[in-house]
Write a structure and sequence with these properties.
The chain is mainly α. It is 56% helix and 6% strand.
Amino acid sequence: MIEERRYSKRELARLYWPETQNIKSALKNLRQDIKGCPELVEALSHTHWNINRHSYSAEQVRLIVKFLCEP
């Protein structure tokens, strides 16, 4: 089970896409997964989610895991 804490985007992308050799590809995959789930985007928008930040808060990570399942 993933620990509920702040994760950098790179760290979380690595958890979801460990087989991806290029971190940029892993980040892109995670971003696409998030954008592909309108309910998740809506939930994240209520947490002051900013696409330009370099990390996700513990609450945002909890929502990502809830909607995308455990990595």
